[in-house]
Amino acid sequence: MTAEADLASLPALAYVYHPQSFAPLSIVEAADGLCRIVWIIDSSNPEAAAMQPLLRRLGPVIDTSGLTVAQVSPLVEEHQPNGVLSMHDADLLWTAVLAAALAKPFHSVDAATKLTDKYEQRVALAAAGLAVPAFGTIPPDADDAAIAALAKEFPYPAVLKPRRGQASRDTFPVDSFDELTATIAELRARPGQPAEEYILEQFVSDPVEPLGGQGFAPFVSVESIVEGGRVAHAAISARTPFRWPFRETGLCTPTAVAPSLQADILRVAGDAALALGVTQACLHIEIKLTDDGPVVIEVNGRPGGGVSEMLERASGFSILRAALRLALGVTVGLERPVPCTRVGYLLYVFPESDITWIDAVEGLSDLQAVDGVNEIVLVRGPGKSIDWREGSQAHVFRLTGTTRDHEELRRLIAATTTLVRIDGHDDLIPRFERG
Fold first, then answer.
1. Would you say the pTM of this structure is higher than 0.90?
2. Phi, psi at residue 313, to the nearest 5°?
3. Which tens digit of pLDDT belongs to each residue from 219-257?
4. Contact 203/133 with Cβ under 8 angstroms?
5. Which domains does the chain have, with CATH numbers?
């Protein structure tokens, strides 16, 4: 790490931290020799508050709890930052307002809105001439007549998802108007959940042929770097088959997609970045492969979760460090996708069936011994609840590492179910709390 005296001479980056984004030590490691971090947190978030002792050891901390952007701005200015950055979806718009107040490069308020509002994003993509499925919004206070006016004749099958959300949370397939109204009624009946606005969009059909590659979903993501309005692409990542309804089970880079399709994928990703007005940032662009060509599903205004580490293992290139450089105005200069010497992967493992409580997880040590496994993280052990409605976050464990090729990765994926057993049950009361 950079010595303390040298650290003080580095430019400062005001980083809006959220515990569900990159880990503090990962950020500090990526910033080594490049910048020092001024941490901006909201201590009204209990998870963020719990991280304060560590963050204060890593740099100055500014607490925004109860403050407006106008009040936070002079506190940040005292540290004379060279840039501002956030890599958590829910904080992008707030950070864009702060960056504008400080006259620092970041997403514009308009771009941040389009990156975090699925409806506005669809409008912008359609206006730019990109292929977009039919879509509409359902306000939180929409009554039966308003829902029917939008959705009675909608082209089903469709997908219902929060207008603002991530990780496939509360994302449901709906095959008919009756199923839509039943799903909305169920969502609104949940206790303790605030009313949300939803977007309804036509389901993008799967291709006839396995365009994603053998054993992979017809779905990819592109890690793009926009620098001074110029779009370059670092990598295309493949997806393993989704778990019902739309839960990601894993990804790897480089992609298993045929080289003949990759140029079209990168072209569409570049068009999407420009359509949203992004000028200086790293993007994570999710794309569905169809018989009619690539279709943008979502553009995220930050690197993909777990992708930076995965790509770095496969190639040595750090998207996270690139994001820091862009925020500081330091040239990245990427011209083409980075070459990979191995296949980097991140896998999410779920129970075989959608149980609500975990009783036992056995065989992780056997899986750890398999060639290519670097790390296994148990997220939900015995006694923990699990809810599929949380989307991709509702996994039992995840594993990371590298393999020589995609065939070796396929064998490793099979080992996650043959070597590991996850037991559980559906009781409303945890077995461990019953008398």
1. yes
2. -65, -35
3. 999 999 999 999 999 999 999 999 988 889 999 999 999
4. yes
5. 4-106 (3.40.50.20), 134-202 (3.30.1490.20), 207-341 (3.30.470.20), 343-435 (3.30.470.20)
